[in-house]
């Protein structure tokens, strides 16, 4: 089946598809910011240029479009009826690239979270965002639990209080 648009029109349409500041990204970023989380956006030094980066906690979030990243069993991830072979190959390559980038990040010690576009539809949005907040809060707590405790070499504890006096006994007063 041939394309219904001319080559120039199709090229123009495709050039208007954004890869940054998409609606799903803005929904997640606004929610996290309002909950007090601070993050970096699209850090170029990291593999895959993650959408949201928590550098202190070594956690990244990718917010993937179901169509472009081939979300399995999702109605939004259908293959177009025109150029099906080309689209199948393109989405397969996107999935391979995603897997490589996630593996690289994990090898570097990063935690990788993925939020799918279909998880942010109004019916599922609150549940998804609350779950994301819970995961991030847990990772922050884990980060702060790694602090070293003090180790005492002896079992004797220093005495901090004054010695106890019997009830109604005269106290030492300064004369």
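-> sequence recovered:
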């Amino acid at each position: 089946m041939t394309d219904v648009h001319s080559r120039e029109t199709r090229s123009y349409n495709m050039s208007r598809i954004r890869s940054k500041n998409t609606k799903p990204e803005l929904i997640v970023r606004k929610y996290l910011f309002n909950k007090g989380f601070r993050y970096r956006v699209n850090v170029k030094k990291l593999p895959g240029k993650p959408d949201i980066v928590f550098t202190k906690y070594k956690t990244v979030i990718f917010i993937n479009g179901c169509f472009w990243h081939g979300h399995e069993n999702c109605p939004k991830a259908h293959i177009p009826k025109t150029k099906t072979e080309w689209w199948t190959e393109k989405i397969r390559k996107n999935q391979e690239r995603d897997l490589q980038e996630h593996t690289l990040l994990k090898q570097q010690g990063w935690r990788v979270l993925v939020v799918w576009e279909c998880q942010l539809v109004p019916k599922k949005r609150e549940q998804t965002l609350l779950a994301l907040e819970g995961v991030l809060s847990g990772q922050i707590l884990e980060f702060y639990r790694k602090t070293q405790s003090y180790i005492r070499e002896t079992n004797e504890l220093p005495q901090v209080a004054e010695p106890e006096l019997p009830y109604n006994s005269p106290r030492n007063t300064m004369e």
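The helical segments are 7-15, 23-34, 66-69, 84-107, 122-145.
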